[in-house]
Specification:
Elements (H helix, E strand, L loop, with lengths): L5 H19 L33 E4 L2 E8 L2 E8 L7 H11 L9 E3 L4 E7 L6
Antiparallel strand pairs: 1-2, 2-3, 3-5, 4-5
């Protein structure tokens, strides 16, 4: 179960609002630029550190990090643990449920992994 703090809730609202704004404006949501000067939990799996750079499309909740990217008609959500440890698909689904409010889980496609969980949802499924 996800039990966000008030600051995590506020960040989620900011991020999701920005995602919807970009979709309405038909703008591409890009991953943050890679900061080579930052310490990373793992150099073995690049996606475990996506989103550690400050950016408008990512945040964290209960020790998990989430990062959005997308273009055209598909939104991609990446979920990892902040400490770089493995996470289950169910962990990722709980985070996706928090950061994608109002989107029925059956409409979110999951590509499971060991260190990162990837979710895809069509723009037309979002409450734009």
């Amino acid at each position: 179960m996800i039990t966000p703090t008030e600051s995590e809730r506020e960040r989620q609202r900011e991020v999701f609002s920005r995602v919807l704004q970009y979709i309405r404006e038909d703008r591409t949501i890009r991953l943050p630029d890679f900061d080579k000067t930052r310490s990373r939990p793992s150099d073995q799996f690049a996606l475990t550190s996506v989103g550690i750079e400050e950016n408008g499309f990512g945040g964290s909740v209960n020790g998990f990090r989430y990062q959005f990217e997308g273009e055209e008609d598909l939104l991609h959500l990446i979920v990892t643990r902040e400490n770089g440890e493995p996470l289950t698909a169910e962990d990722g689904q709980r985070v996706a449920g928090f950061v994608l409010p109002g989107v029925p889980p059956a409409l979110i496609w999951l590509k499971p992994g060991t260190y990162s969980q990837h979710f895809f949802v069509g723009h037309d499924e979002l409450p734009v």
